[in-house]
Write a structure and sequence with these properties.
Blueprint lengths: L6 H17 L8 H13 L4 H5 L3 H16 L5 H5 L1
Helix pairs in contact: 1-2
Amino acid sequence: MDSRPKTPHIFANKVIKILIESMFADDFKIKSEDYQAIRVVFRKLDGSWDQLGLGSLEELEKLKKVITGWSKIPHDKKSDAMI
């Protein structure tokens, strides 16, 4: 079985990581399962990774809201609380 992430997930995870690094302190860490939770919630809000990749500010704001909400969840409950 191929355990490598699919290309869209690589893009999404990089965008998520960059936003978290720019929005929060350097010591703010994200677990691998949190990436999936953030991606799922973004899609549930009708977020489009394609449009985000094309520079949509509306999609960027949606993703920032999801990440802000994620940051407020206690660290040990993040993945379960998001989905």
